[in-house]
Amino acid sequence: MPSCPSHSLPPPVRGASLASHASSPQALRAAIPVDYLRCAVPTHMGGLGGGPEDLVPLMRSLCAQSLSAGVLFWCQRTAIEFLVQTFNVALCEHLLPDLLSFQRAATAPLSLDAPALTAQEGGRGLRLSGWVQSVANAQADGVSLIVPVHMPASTPIPTPIPTPIPTPIPTPGFAGWAVLQSEEDGVHLEPGTLLPHLHNTCPARVRVDQAFFRADEWLGDSPLLQQTEPVRLALGVLYQSLIAAPETLL
Length: 250
Description:
Blueprint: H1 25-30, H2 34-38, H3 55-65, H4 67-85, H5 89-100, E1 105-107, E2 117-122, E3 125-135, E4 143-150, E5 175-181, E6 187-191, E7 204-213, E8 218-221, H6 223-227, H7 229-235, H8 237-244
């Protein structure tokens, strides 16, 4: 039976030191073992099983080599957890394999209580607008964005196309979570900043200007945030490492 990996990292890719200012975003991304991302993901979803506590030594080990790689791991694994916990099975099955293999980058706001995007009626779907002020892992080849969205009470929700698997739909008057793709019209990645001693973490600010959104891209209402909490707390070891680290570290 597969299990979460031990907390010892393999040697960095091509022998390059991760504690080097020359580490590119691609090198940092390649240095995160795929099995780390699969840890604490149910086996029937393509993961290795295990519990959130198994992520703690993995994050500590990764941060010991590179805090920047730890930031990318936090972003990717947090986004994965939103998909693991969503009731939108069809969306999860569509996106999760590429996220688990890191073939596709993904991220969530570094502050999960960030202001929500606002939805408005947009014909056969909705139009989202607003800012996501701080994300990382916004890789140049594209990124899936987990974003908070507020549905005004007056917003009519278009009914998604019927599928064999029921799809959750947004609740007017409530907030929740959705997925946007950086390549979509109306989604603009602008340069962002993190701590000065973090390098190549692909920080960005996301400006969303009337981006089209379908109801079947909805992850779930606000309780989804609580459902992701055990994994987010485990990954929070990153913040302890950032506080303790001297600024000479990546």
